[in-house]
């Protein structure tokens, strides 16, 4: 069959993200004998024109549409991507069957299949079941009984099947040079599954709670391919937590050092599972930026958010980064269950104490079905069973709901290392667009070291 793979993600801020999920699907489909064409809409001047052109040139039998996110998860400056995605799906359905998938789709698959008008949907990891689905369609058979496969008009589907052995993505059909030039990095995954229980997080829903680790030698081979074949000199590990388990992270870093491949990289790190030896090994292996999903500097809020670490862990992790002279950032989520003015100020105070390179603050927490936060929001009447969760809906604690944005703005403006995207403090679309004209490698928050003072709506 002729299969068209479309990545509909067009979000460029803070930087364009290579569609690694779609690259994971390309290999199995090609090995099954299908003819593939990729359309990445991230850099398209006009999505509708690009879709019409490729449909005319390639004439697909099936179109696979990968959905990374359904909105930008940013309050109060939220924006939905659904209308544009629905337009793409509508154009494709005139020519072929449309299969929806991706992490964004898997969060609310039944609702999204109906909303976007696709014919079929794949929930969760698709490397195996997508090949089975396409084969069934080519034989004219119903794919209804396949695990994790949705059929238009029928909301029932079997539980998604987890991939036991995660392979390597096939990037050969994608615009890697463009991502390197505009985004400054390539992405790489070392594991799937999340055993932790943050109240808002969708990772366990998408990938399951059982951790599955890739063989280290395969990761090294993928890094070498990125460097030698595509000229990549910066990698971002997309794992929700890079440093758990610690011994696996240490082994990977040792292998990177031993391989002799020269590449810098960054990753999200849990403040609890970190040791002096691991930090040293990560830096030796090329890591030049640590990103901590800290969420809060308040002990009460860390507990309410279901975090696996405490304030002392945050202090220790920050100290170890400063000791090694490596840049690090803490990500803070304001407005969670039980948030008050006092807990907000505790977060600012702790960040002052640990003095990271940057703090990225977000106001409000996107609510997703299936999470503990969703159930709490129902109990508190923040939402109802009839609330349309496809539209961006955010949880903000009642005690700070009317004052949070002003409070965070006032406090952030007193500190030059804070970046608050939703309030456009030290960041804006115009600023990010200008930065992309220069050769920047790694996280853009590292540039806050150059700020003389904090600014609202910079470059606007």
Name its key features.
460 residues; alpha/beta; Rossmann fold; 2 domains; 17 helices; globular
Structure, described:
By secondary structure, the protein is of the alpha/beta class. The chain is 37% helix and 16% strand. It has 17 helices and 17 strands. A seven-stranded parallel β-sheet has the order 7-10-11-12-13-14-17. A six-stranded mixed β-sheet has the order 2-1-3-4-5-6, sandwiched between helices. Strand 11 (264-269), helix 11 and strand 12 (287-295) form a beta-alpha-beta unit. Helix 9 (216-230) crosses helix 10, helix 10 runs parallel beside helix 11 (276-284) and helix 14 (341-354) packs parallel to helix 16 (404-412). The longest helix is centred in the middle third of the chain and has 15 residues, at 216-230. The protein is globular and about 65 Å long. The mean pLDDT is 94.
Topology:
Layout: E1 2-7, H1 20-31, E2 35-40, H2 47-58, E3 62-66, H3 82-93, E4 97-101, H4 103-107, H5 109-116, E5 120-122, H6 129-138, E6 149-151, H7 176-183, E7 186-188, E8 191-192, H8 203-207, E9 212-213, H9 216-230, E10 234-237, H10 246-259, E11 264-269, H11 276-284, E12 287-295, H12 299-304, H13 311-324, E13 327-334, H14 341-354, E14 358-363, E15 365-366, H15 372-379, E16 394-395, H16 404-412, E17 418-419, H17 429-435
Parallel strand pairs: 1-2, 1-3, 3-4, 4-5, 7-10, 10-11, 11-12, 12-13, 13-14, 14-17
Antiparallel strand pairs: 5-6, 8-9, 15-16
